[in-house]
Amino acid sequence: MCVPFVRDDGDVLGVLQIDRSDVRTEFRRDDLDLLAGVAGTVTRAIEQAQAHEERLSQEQLRRDLELAHRVQQGLLPARPPDIPGYETFDYYEPARQISGDFFSYVPLSDRRTAVVLADVSGKGVSAALVMAALSADVRYCLASEPDVARAVSRINESLCRSGWEDRFATLVVAVLDPRVHRVTLVNAGHMPPLVRDASGGIHPVGVEESGFPLGVDPDHVYAAVEVGVAPGSTLVLYTDGISEAMDHAHRTYGLARLQRVIGEAGGGAGELGRRILADVERHAAGQVRSDDICLVCVGRAAAESPQSPAPVTGAGRVQSGA
Questions:
Q1: 8 is in which domain, residue-wise?
Q2: What is the CATH number of the domain that holds 308?
């Protein structure tokens, strides 16, 4: 005699089977009704046990994601660097608890500072793991290799050897030398940084020199481009979470609107960064983020003064998931 364990939605969890040792005695209808009642009670107990296991699993996953979030936040700068004559603003908002976007400030010799922005393909835990490995390679290669283009080539080789065949990353490195007010820039498949001059003109940097994303070709040779930073100019680096932010009609924010807002904004890097973020928020109008957002603005003071301006601190930094 067999009776199934049937959930309310019709799914069968299993079957209860009973056999008699005396083959001369048959089961009666009353026996079947009794067994069906027992099976119903057992089904409820199994469902409750499964729900309990699911709650425990979800709670463990939540704790693991919270830990991963804290570890990832520890890989990001605690505050912008203090560069004499310059103001720095940064903002970071993961679409989920953990992110594939990455930015960093790497101090180099001769008071230079490397500003790094990267975007790993994909989302979730796997993208975050690649991001963690990439952040370590970035710091080591930039600190140990004086030539920025060769340093990015070494980073690319390391990512290609790492075994993440289905993953790649775009990256841009801008090394600022405040002594001569010049930036050496290397772009690995990332969107070109934008420079806003003191009059509001917008100039993409390194479009022709942009190379392959990291992790595509281990033998790819990257090129560097140098640009001067005039008084009042601001360098803007960003990820596609800004340019591809969508409104309720699924229209993207777009590079044209970003450049228009940058050209209209006045003041230093902090004011410019906050204006960009406010305009992106107006466009999205409360829509759920589909991608991580990372923005870094580095601006030279319009007029040099004996007292260098204080950097914009974490006012624009989001430390928890959206």
A1: 2-65
A2: 3.60.40.10
Closest CA to 92 of 297, 298, 292: 292
Reported as half-sphere exposure (CB side, CA atoms, 13 A), residue 280 has a value of 28
CA distance 284 to 90: 20
Q: What does the pLDDT average to over 268-286? A: 91
Q: Give the chain's domain count.
A: 2
Query: What whole-number distance in Å separates Cα of residue 284 and Cα of residue 251?
Result: 9
Residue 284 pLDDT more than 70? yes
> Alpha-carbon distance 33 to 311, whole Å?
78
Q: Tell me the residue type at 290.
A: S
215 CB-near residues (< 8 Å, 6+ apart) = 156, 159, 160, 162, 164, 167, 168, 169
pTM score, whole prediction = 0.73
Beta strands 113-120; 101-107: pairing state: antiparallel
